[in-house]
């Protein structure tokens, strides 16, 4: 894992960072053959993810989603393309003709007769004539008479089995054979969708099929005659609420199917002359395809819009006319990038520098993974094979694999500390474990324990304002004082977290007086912290705050956890979390020590004062809390307890009387005044929620 050090005070010397090259060399030499082999295998898996993610289940779905985002956000915004016009059968046309399938061919014949005289550059018909109609003779005659280059849709069962069956294909072939001339010829309308049903790329060109419609309508340079890269989908340049000019105009076929005289035909010719005309259906739930643009809602309709096949042909034709071919990413380059990404993750886990530089290195790499694919997409690079999500997984695996190896070495170097039982356990418990080493085996058991958490207010600020040597000396002195108290009172030191001490009573050996000893230790730790503050005042260092202590009793899983190479005797469970929250709650309640009601019942102390019912941060169950106040008289503690009891039962008269008297008596006691304030803000028996 990455090593980051905190920033030091201005002018203060920082320990020299271990060079990255030295950390890598240490990792290689100290890891050992078996762990080295496991790490290398893990990195190989990471490289495979970073290269082959498009072909992997689930991960491939993420890659396609990211590509769709790139294709949509980086799509060119253009005005209406005047080179291409779509003439469509829409639902209104079907209603007017009363014919839904096959489409009315008289309409088509009449429209072709008019369009042929308007001077289009070429006509592409995306309608498959795979079944007979009574008006076939009229359409066939018109198709044979066409003067404009006209291309008729052709499909076959072998390459498109879900669209046409054998008998339909035979009829289509005979139909096309009757109408084929030097001007009227078949064209392939084959599309290829990805496994999620989305069209993203140009299809392949089987040799037994006629030319693809876009290739047939307009000349294509030989180098791209079999182009199978990504389709460049266009979006309108002008998009506003309720207003949009489509990239390609759609004109209902009804416009051209009606009889026209020369003047009428001349009026409509401006929409057709010199343009590529695509004829097909624009019918709801028919010939609709998902594209990368379908993944996101349309800014006008707010829906995930599909695209008719005719419009897909139009986008492909426009791309061909613009010669806007994307450049594929070479396979070797993708392998090199995959290796570099994984290495970057592994080396990042070994960085030894200031925290802000570690964060900057991490954020810089994440920004690269997020932005670089979009940059490539915007610079005419085909990113349909670029493993953007795979890079992120590969980087993460590289980081985790090398970081885990580094931590393994670190755990070996710290192994000597795990044998120092006497520094963590009371003398009698340590002696018992020495007599019975099997107690250090990996196991856990449920025990009822008393948990203490402490925290020293202001120590972080002090550590930033003085030298590391001074910080280490003061921290060791402080932890020695608190550790001695825990051990002297029969407790077990769980861990140190910075300046915090975590300890518990009741395991591995429980005693009848554990509750009393834990409570006494909690008060003694607070008093030791206050004494440390006084002693520290004589030194030339910034002042620190109080030591806050939380005590709770409850069930926890206690035992040795870790592995055969590293064992830690610790406690896990909700009781530990509650004790930690109690320690934190001292700051809000303006107290130094807080006991839960459960711990207070077994504390054997007569100096506890109730501090009301609170809901600790991150907890749902309210907790009644108490604090030791040996500085108050029994009568004063009794009056405070009466105040809390009156609030709990909803006796407003008794509560107001007690609160008024306590305000006068404890006007300068912040914890008592805040107790009254909290009780005023809650109803009968309610808890006060700590933020």
Tell me about this structure.
The chain has 691 residues and is α/β, with parallel strands linked by helices. The protein is built from 23 helices and 23 strands. The strands form six sheets. Strands 15, 16, 17, 18, 19, 20, 21, 22 and 23 form a nine-stranded mixed sheet that branches. Strand 18 and strand 19 form a beta hairpin. The chain is elongated.
* Shape label: elongated
Which range does the strand content fall in?
15-25%
Number of helices: 23
Radius of gyration: 40 Å
Flag low-confidence runs.
1-16, 413-420
Distance between the termini: 32 Å
Helix content: 40-55%
What class, by secondary structure content? alpha/beta
**How many beta-strand segments?**
23
Main sheet overview: 9 strands, mixed
The average pLDDT score comes to: 86
Keywords for this entry:
elongated; nine-stranded mixed beta sheet; alpha/beta; disordered N terminus; 691 residues; six-stranded parallel beta sheet; 23 helices; 17% strand
List the helices and strands and how they pair.
Layout: E1 3-5, H1 20-30, H2 33-52, H3 59-73, E2 77-78, E3 84-90, H4 91-97, H5 105-116, E4 122-125, H6 136-145, E5 150-154, H7 166-179, E6 184-188, H8 213-217, E7 235-236, E8 239-240, E9 243-244, E10 249-252, H9 254-257, H10 262-269, E11 276-282, E12 288-289, E13 307-308, H11 309-322, H12 331-348, E14 352-354, H13 355-378, H14 388-413, H15 427-435, E15 443-456, H16 459-464, H17 468-488, E16 492-497, E17 500-505, H18 514-537, E18 547-563, E19 566-572, H19 574-589, E20 593-596, H20 597-601, E21 608-615, E22 623-628, H21 634-649, H22 652-665, H23 670-680, E23 688-689
Parallel strand pairs: 1-14, 2-7, 3-10, 3-11, 4-5, 4-11, 5-6, 18-20, 21-23
Antiparallel strand pairs: 8-9, 12-13, 15-17, 15-18, 16-17, 18-19, 20-22, 21-22
